[in-house]
Design goal:
8-stranded antiparallel beta barrel; elongated; Porin; two-stranded antiparallel sheet; alpha+beta
Amino acid sequence: MLKKTLLAALFMLTSSAAFAQVGGGVQVGTTGVGVDFGYQFSDSLGGRIGYSGFNYSRKTHTSDVDYDAKLKLSSLRLLADWELGAGFRVSGGVVYNNNKVDVTGQAANGTYTLNGNTYQASDIGNFTGRVKLGDGFAPYLGIGYGMIAKKGLGLYADLGVMYQGKAKTSLNVTCGAALSSSQCTQLQNDADVERQKVQDKLNGYSWYPVVSVGVSYAF
């Protein structure tokens, strides 16, 4: 249903372009670096579609394991802007959220510690995981400044939140050739405990803050 609504809204925006002022902008913020295209339907009502993305690598850890983590931001937004006066506005809409974090476990001094058990680096063939930040479509509500489809060069900014839901964590730990069948089973059980630790660490982040600023130009 949400996909049909998004497609219908895109069609209305496109089909109305001939009767509206058209503008575009580039912005940077907590959703990454992005572009927006907008239409001004009246003095106070505008609509825009935009995309943002960014990759960022850093090291992180739980109580047992160090990780190399790569944050991959990717989101498509469809928003309506209602100007209140003096350039300020209220914005709402939907964001297709494809943000995720890919992680690779790192051996400390040649060993891994999982659930209190120590494994040699050679005991583990592969140690990777993914954290999916959100569940597809996410509602967005915020305030802002500037309408990107009003004529001329301008600034625009957004401050709001999107509800991305609970993060989903997967962890893929494979057994090395040196492990026996029982040791491999123990490793998989310990890896599931570690996956739950990562999940618990992220459970409080259902709301994603959106802060951005950009430059726009309209014809």
